[in-house]
Design goal:
Largest sheet: none
Structural class: mainly alpha
Oligomer: single chain
């Protein structure tokens, strides 16, 4: 609670500087609180999976949970992100966006599922080794639910309904955990795989209850919206795909060269090292729709303020996490998962880089320049792929951590260069918190301790 109070207090103080910040900080706080609740549910899910299924089962679950998400990122071609932009900038009405969301979900699902079903035997012998065809089919049939879920989240964000957005993401994680509790304990790994499908399906259906309150869909009679969506989405989709693959590509390459048990160890190291990332994730999520309604100079100053404060908080969180990591693994995941420790430590600087990239990405998307985020993500993806292929066969999951940390750091250097050149804001202003802002944190900490 102290961390949440520090963030909230700092938010209120900083509102004196920028006219539009009160809404942003309130929305960021709601989103951050939602991220914390989701984080607790994710931790409980990981504890359940690791204790019941062990490293190998955890590895299989991680791969099959990531598979439909990666597939949808490729197949939806950024149309959900375009929905956020068009709703946030009020270029289109909600009813039109929802109509296209339903139509696109049906079309994209039919094409994606059909192609993957045809390729299923090739996939389990090459791309996703050590996974049964039955389990892969379950992951494939998660795709339609994942597509519509992403559209639901996009619509809620575009309408700046941050409470609804966070409620939906919390509900998704809660339903996944509940399904796992019911099925894993009784049916083991098979139950765990089917719990993914159940959680995806029920959460997507629950999202309908949230968005239907905003109005009824208006099915399109012309393709103007779709053309503009594809134009915007095509500039951002590769960035989204490359960004996610950079964060999760290691899992598939570790599985290819090593085995699912090593995937299990590495997935725990990623999960723990990314805990502080939920702070910039909350800021970046709100930043995108918020700056889409601002003039560019104001949007750039606003983003610089958010960036330097997220760096400050994320670094502090990483230091704290580094101190307590070993007992945390022992208590919650057992000593069997100690092989995750070294990759965890190596991945902490990557978490700081991911936080900066999240804020920069929100700025680029909100100011109509998603291609800059795509450049960052492509550099990160390309370097990660090359270094993974070099390092993982030689150094295992430690090599995977080294590769992704180098890649994300270099990507952020490029992103900061682009931002500072286009905004005329200095690198110092982007990365280093100001003394008066630090004093605000100190005053609140002292107040909390005194209380």
């Amino acid at each position: 609670m102290e961390i949440c109070e520090i963030l909230w207090f700092h938010f209120l103080l900083s509102c004196r500087v920028f006219n539009r910040m009160s809404d942003y900080y309130r929305h960021s706080f709601v989103t951050f609180a939602g991220q914390i609740l989701s984080l607790v549910l994710i931790l409980l899910s990981n504890i359940l999976i690791t204790r019941v299924l062990g490293p190998e089962g955890k590895g299989v679950m991680s791969l099959l949970l990531a598979f439909p998400i990666v597939t949808v990122l490729f197949s939806i071609v950024g149309l959900d992100e375009a929905s956020i932009y068009f709703l946030g900038s009020k270029k289109y009405e909600y009813s039109e966006v929802l109509g296209w969301a339903i139509l696109n979900t049906l079309i994209i699902s039919a094409i994606s599922v059909g192609i993957l079903v045809i390729l299923r035997n090739w996939l389990v012998t090459s791309v996703i080794k050590n996974i049964s065809t039955e389990f892969l089919m379950v992951a494939i049939f998660c795709i339609p639910f994942q597509i519509f879920f992403q559209y639901e989240c996009a619509i809620l964000l575009g309408k700046k309904n941050f409470f609804g957005y966070n409620l939906l993401t919390i509900l998704r994680n809660f339903l996944l955990l509940l399904a796992q509790l019911i099925l894993i304990i009784k049916y083991g790994l098979r139950g765990g795989i089917y719990s993914i499908l159940l959680g995806f399906a029920v959460s997507a259906l629950a999202g309908i209850l949230l968005i239907k309150k905003l109005g009824k869909p208006k099915f399109p009679k012309q393709f103007d919206f779709e053309k503009k969506s594809i134009s915007y989405g095509s500039r951002s989709v590769l960035g989204l795909v490359f960004h996610y693959l950079t964060r999760r590509l290691d899992l598939f390459i570790v599985n290819f060269f090593l085995n699912t048990a090593q995937v299990g160890f590495y997935s725990i190291s990623l999960m723990l090292s990314e805990l502080p990332w939920y702070i910039p994730s909350a800021f970046g999520t709100v930043l995108f729709p918020q700056v889409s309604g601002m003039e560019k100079p104001e949007a750039h100053r606003f983003s610089a303020l958010i960036c330097r404060n997220t760096v400050f908080i994320t670094v502090l969180a990483c230091i704290l996490l580094a101190v307590i990591a070993k007992p945390v693994i022992n208590i919650f995941f057992t000593a069997k998962f100690y092989p995750a420790l070294i990759p965890f430590y190596i991945n902490l600087p990557r978490t700081v880089a991911l936080g900066i990239a999240r804020v920069l990405g929100g700025n680029f998307q909100g100011t109509g320049k998603p291609e800059y985020g795509t450049i960052m993500a492509f550099v990160s993806f390309a370097i990660t792929l090359i270094l993974d292929l070099l390092f993982i066969p030689r150094w295992g999951i430690t090599g995977a951590a080294i590769a992704t940390t180098i890649a994300n750091t270099l990507s952020v250097v490029i992103g900061l260069y682009i931002f500072t050149k286009s905004s005329k804001i200095s690198l110092t202003e982007m990365l280093f918190v100001r003394w008066n802002e630090v004093k605000n944190y100190r005053q609140l900490v002292a107040k909390v301790i005194k209380r």
